[in-house]
Amino acid sequence: MDAREIEADLNETLVTEAEIHAKLAELARRIEADYEGRDILLVGVLKGAVMVMADLARELRPHVTMDWMAVSSYGAGTQSSGVVRILKDLDSDLTGRHVLIVEDIIDSGLTLSWLLGNLRSRGAASVEICALFRKPDAAKVEVPVRYIGFDIPNKFVVGYGLDYAERYRNLRDVAVLAPHVYS
Ligand code: PRP
């Protein structure tokens, strides 16, 4: 889906598909260098990270393996509470593995902060985070992120995996949702 097809629903485009792909290529080169000689297990967090995972994994030149988790934070509405429930756990045993968590966005940081602790307790050799977007002004906890794509303003953004009511994930770019859509 292209932004111009739903322009009435959007304010401005924040990051284009081309900018995302250029950034993922840059991150992939850093990841390849940092993990040279070590096998990477990419862990994607459903559902938002599907696009990042698909594009980052294909950008990486060595073999990687992929696994998925689905988590849900308890709490009202759109605000994270920090209490996280596992809806789908990993299929893999993490013992001795080099785990790279792949996320679309860090908002409050509560989900990733919890996930980092959870995965680190499973005996992995290392656990690092790659997140394509981060909203510094929304942070409630600092999350140690090794690879970050873009810092963006604390606005309601959709596209490239990010949804509003499960829609807009297939928008190619990342754009600010027009307030009339959700108010
Ligand atoms: C989004 C995103 C992160 C989390 C970030 O997922 O993919 O997992 O919120 O928010 P936080 O930093 O405030 O914890 P969401 O719960 O919307 O589910 P989705 O990936 O299925 O859209």
UniProtKB/TrEMBL annotation:
A GO cellular component entry from the record: cytosol
Q: What class of enzyme is it?
A: transferase
Task: Fetch the Gene3D superfamilies from UniProt.
Answer: 3.40.50.2020
- Record GO biological process: GMP salvage; guanine salvage; hypoxanthine metabolic process; IMP salvage; purine ribonucleoside salvage
Q: Which domain of life is it from?
A: Bacteria
Q: Where does the UniProt annotation locate this protein?
A: Cytoplasm
Give the family this protein belongs to, as stated in its UniProt record: Belongs to the purine/pyrimidine phosphoribosyltransferase family.
Please state what the protein is called. Hypoxanthine phosphoribosyltransferase
